[in-house]
Structures are given as structure tokens and as C-alpha cells.
Amino acid sequence: MLINMFTRLVTRRLMNWGINKGIGAVSKSGKRTSGKAGRGKGAGFNKKRTKQAARLLRRIGR
Description:
- The protein has helices at 2-28, 41-61.
- With 62 residues, the protein is an all-alpha fold.
């Protein structure tokens, strides 16, 4: 029972880390037409909104 609990804890943390890395990679990528795409205030805002949406979807999926 203790091993099972530890395994779930580690798995949950690894999944959250991977999801956050994936969201960060997606929010950094995008159209490179203006030369400043993905930088500045807008990029942080989009990353924050994307994380919030992912968190919401994870809650709904439970």
C-alpha cells in the first residue's frame, strides 16, 4: 500500500511536469512573421491562460 501511494505521487508529479513543459513549448512556438512573436506581455498572458485551461480540463476529466 505504501509503495502504491508513492508510485501514484511520483507519477502525478511527472505528469504535471510534462504537461507544463508541453504547454510552455506550445506557447513559445507560433508564427514568426513579426520577429517578436512569442515575446513580451502577450506571451506570458497566453501561457498563463493555457495553463489555466489545462488545469480546468484535468479537473473535468477526473
